[in-house]
């Protein structure tokens, strides 16, 4: 989910650049663990989320370097954060309510649809 959203961000926000790699999905994994850090009672996830927060901050700063896709990384973050809410975690099935899961799913699908629609509405030069 984070890889797809990250690549949709790249296609829309950086249409003239060529991007390839798995960093969008990795940023999404970081974001999902950070979100779960605040939503679960699992000590391991809380400790891992705490570690990933600093890792995420350092990598976000490095995303501003030339040749690195900031749009892809931000899209991966958004996709991962929403994915953490949508998909249940083993042993923490009730960390988010069904309403929260549904709203996150609607937000994910809506954002994806909007980005796809706006990308195809852009004039080709």
UniProtKB/TrEMBL annotation:
Membrane-spanning ranges: 20-39, 74-90, 102-120
Xref: Pfam families: Rhomboid
Protein's UniProt keywords contain Mitochondrion: no
Topology in the lipid bilayer: Multi-pass membrane protein
UniProt GO molecular function: serine-type endopeptidase activity
Keywords: Membrane, Transmembrane, Transmembrane helix
Domain Peptidase S54 rhomboid: 1-87
InterPro entries in the cross-refs: Peptidase_S54_rhomboid_dom, Rhomboid-like_sf
Cellular location(s): Membrane
Main localization, broad class: membrane
Protein name: Rhomboid family protein
Cellular component terms (Gene Ontology): membrane
């Amino acid at each position: 989910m984070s890889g797809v959203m990250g690549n949709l961000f790249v296609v829309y926000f950086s249409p003239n650049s060529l991007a390839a790699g798995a960093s969008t999905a990795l940023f999404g994994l970081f974001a999902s663990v950070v979100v779960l850090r605040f939503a679960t009672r699992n000590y391991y996830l809380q400790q891992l989320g705490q570690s990933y927060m600093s890792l995420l901050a350092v990598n976000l700063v490095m995303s501003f370097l030339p040749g690195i896709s900031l749009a892809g990384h931000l899209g991966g973050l958004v996709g991962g954060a929403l994915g953490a809410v949508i998909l249940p975690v083993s042993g923490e099935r009730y960390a988010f309510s069904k309403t929260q899961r549904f709203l996150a799913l609607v937000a994910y699908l809506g954002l994806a649809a909007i980005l796809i629609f706006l990308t195809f509405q852009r004039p080709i030069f």
